[in-house]
Specification:
globular; 14 helices; Rossmann fold; six-stranded parallel β-sheet; alpha/beta
Length: 366
């Protein structure tokens, strides 16, 4: 409907930001609203809900270094992006702008504020990201995936709503698949993923862990692993030698269905991954990305680990011996797997898109 209100969704060009934006977009379109995506150039590779004619690319940059020259270059790029985004706001006249975190959301959200347009930010992490932290005092409303994220900040609590992380349709479909723990002689399905770019640590550690499993478990093991192209040959060589049933690829387009089909997922603990594991309800072994200033992945993994839905292993402890021990114990204890799956499910929110859409419409006064 060409005359219906327009909502601009601002998200960086990675799955962790784009997938919740897509889920919200689907819900808003169901309600008769128009949507467009404002993003950086990386999202042009994206093939989901947002076609090229629904996408506006705004210049942006991430803080990559603390050197004065790098900071000046980043500041100049963000200022340029804000000017471009301000012209976009004047042309499109959206009813509201919703940001999903990451530095690429700064120009459109700041431009919306300058233009007097209502703004909402959504943060999926247990610790609010730096871009959203900067925007938090400047936006109309804040949505968080998890409760308590801003409880220690009275100035922000009043405009904060816990909605959960909006789930794209493929995740909602996967969430409808019940968990079935494997019997003693059934296939034991393990999925290894490393985030949108893949994680080299998985290629370094998982093959050695599989080799250290009891040989009696090898025929049961059905392994699916995300592996970067440059690591593919060395990883495949180990599994070929052990005659393991394995599927290796740099990327899985049908990842939600693969999550649902797995008994254990070994993964990093990005906010999107943790939310999806909770929504679908699957046991996991989570290895937080080390070195982050705010340790957001460590906190994210804790959300599942604290309820018994995941095993959290810091990277210094993530060895082939440790992983082999954890996988062996899980394979031998179907009841524990079922308990972990049920515990993970308690964290998931399948109605998050509806809850966030309600908030956006309230802020936009639609």
């Amino acid at each position: 409907m060409p005359d219906s209100p327009l909502i601009l969704l601002a998200a960086g060009g990675t799955g962790g930001h784009l997938f919740p934006a897509e889920a919200l977009g689907v819900e808003l379109m169901k309600r008769g609203l128009r949507i467009r995506l404002v993003t950086d150039s990386r999202a042009l590779r994206y093939s989901g809900l947002f076609s090229k004619d629904m996408t506006d690319v705004v210049p942006s940059e991430t803080v990559r270094s603390r050197s004065p020259l790098a900071l000046a270059r980043t500041g100049l790029m963000l200022a340029t992006g804000t000017a471009v985004a301000f012209n976009l706001m004047r042309r499109l006249k959206p009813a509201a702008v919703v940001g999903f975190g990451g530095y690429p959301t700064l120009p459109p959200l700041m431009a919306a504020r300058l233009a007097g347009i209502p703004t909402v930010i959504h943060d999926a992490n247990a610790v609010m990201g730096r871009a959203n932290r900067f925007l938090s005092k400047r936006v109309s409303a804040i949505a968080t995936s998890l409760p308590g994220v801003l409880d220690k900040e009275p100035s922000l609590v009043g405009k904060t709503t816990t909605t959960g992380t909006p789930m794209r349709p493929a995740i909602l479909a996967a969430a409808a698949v019940p968990f079935a723990a494997p019997g003693p002689n059934d296939p034991f399905r393990v999925l290894v993923v490393g985030g949108s770019q893949g994680a080299r640590v998985m290629s370094d550690i998982v093959p050695g862990a599989v080799e250290k499993l009891e040989p009696a478990l090898w025929p049961r093991l059905v392994l699916t692993q995300q592996v970067r192209d440059e690591d593919m040959a060395r990883v495949r060589a180990v599994y070929d030698r052990l005659d393991i049933k394995v599927e290796l690829a740099p990327f899985f387009a049908d990842l939600p269905a693969r999550l649902a089909a797995s008994h254990v997922i070994v993964s990093r603990s990005g906010a999107g991954t943790v939310a999806e594991l909770g929504a679908i309800g699957r046991p996991s072994i989570l290895v937080p990305l080390p070195g982050a200033i705010d340790q957001d992945q460590f906190a994210n993994a804790g959300v599942l680990a604290d309820v018994g839905g995941a095993i959290r292993i810091v990277q210094t402890d993530f060895t082939s011996d440790r992983l082999a021990s954890e996988l062996s114990a899980l394979a031998a204890d179907p009841a524990r797997l079922a308990t972990m799956a049920a515990a993970a499910r308690t964290v998931g929110r399948l109605d998050a898109a509806e809850r966030l859409a309600d908030l956006v419409m309230k802020v936009a006064k639609i």
